[in-house]
């Protein structure tokens, strides 16, 4: 697995659990 694949996988899991919190943390 490449770093990008892991990031996308973690991103999808985070979005499915708490999308708003993740988006605010990135901003």
From TrEMBL:
Lineage top rank: taxon: Eukaryota
All copies of domain Moybdenum cofactor oxidoreductase dimerisation, residue ranges: 3-27
MF GO annotations: molybdenum ion binding; oxidoreductase activity
Pfam families according to UniProt: Mo-co_dimer
Protein name: Nitrate reductase
Source organism: Betula chichibuensis
């Amino acid at each position: 697995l490449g770093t990008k694949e892991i990031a996308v996988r973690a991103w999808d899991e985070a979005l499915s659990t708490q999308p708003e919190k993740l988006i605010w943390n990135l901003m």
